[in-house]
Specification:
Elements (H helix, E strand, L loop, with lengths): L17 H26 L6
Length: 49
């Protein structure tokens, strides 16, 4: 099988722009901080899992 084609109109040779990379990085940090805090609260018994 061949891999599915991307639905974006960009050429496959061009990568994300610097602004897109910054956005992805900020989203990643936000998710990571949430996961760390949720793990901390779970460990303290303040939230269920």
């Amino acid at each position: 099988k061949t891999p599915a084609k991307s639905s974006t109109a960009k050429s496959s040779k061009t990568g994300p722009t610097p602004d897109e990379l910054r956005h992805y990085y900020r989203e990643m940090l936000l998710i990571r901080r949430f996961e760390e805090k949720a793990g901390q609260l779970y460990g303290m018994g303040l939230i269920g899992g």
